[in-house]
Amino acid sequence: MVAAISFEENVFGPLVPGRECGACTACCFEITIDHPMLAKPPRTLCSNCRADGCSIYANRPGDCRSWFCLWRRVADLPDHLRPDKSGLLASVVENPGAENPLARLYIVVQWLDQRPITRSAAADELLAAMRRHALPVWVGSGDRMALHFPREEVALHVINGTVAPAALAREVDAWRERLPGA
Q1: What does the pLDDT look like over 36-73, one tens digit per residue?
Q2: Across the strands, what pairs with 90?
Q3: If you write DSSP's letter for every residue of the chain in order, what string do you get?
Q4: Which of 1, 60, 72, 140 could form a cystine bridge with 64, CB 3.0-4.6 A?
Q5: C-beta separation of 149 from 132 below 8 A
Q6: pTM attached to this predicted model
Q7: Contact 107, 133 (CB under 8 A)
């Protein structure tokens, strides 16, 4: 039986060979875990996270086994953009019920310490890399998020379903073709 391919693998391909999490435990803070052996809300450090990694690693829940940040999936992201080194985490979010078509399947980039995304060389480099993947890119977390890509004048036409001026029409049409229900 062939395992189902995740939407991350469909978009970004398999994990980068040889690239391991190492000392990074960003996912131990970031992800939601709703499992009988471990219930953890998002943006809260897991109780099993230790200085040397996960204390239940061999028996961790499926949510932990299957979640990978984009540093593990995108080969052209350099080592210094690993979340624990850069302080930035890029991940894919799937929210098919979202009213906004740009919020149904997107990349989110956020600081691990919950501050708003500010200009920095690492943030600029990571955001530029994420724009190459033809998905909307949001910055921030929770209810404090802002759309980074596509640009605002394009996003407004995609979200509102309005006719774009000739100068934007091609770009707006491309986003509508990529996004289901846009």
Answers
A1: 888 899 888 999 998 888 888 888 888 888 899 999 99
A2: 109
A3: -PPPPPHHHHHH-SPPTT---TT--HHHHHS-EEETTEEE-TTS--TTEETTEETTGGG--HHHHH---HHHH-TTS-GGGSHHHHSEEEEEEE-TT-SSGGGSEEEEEEETT-PPP---HHHHHHHHHHHTTSS-EEEEETTEEEEEES-HHHHHHHHHTPPPPHHHHHHHHHHHHHSTT-
A4: 60
A5: no
A6: 0.88
A7: yes
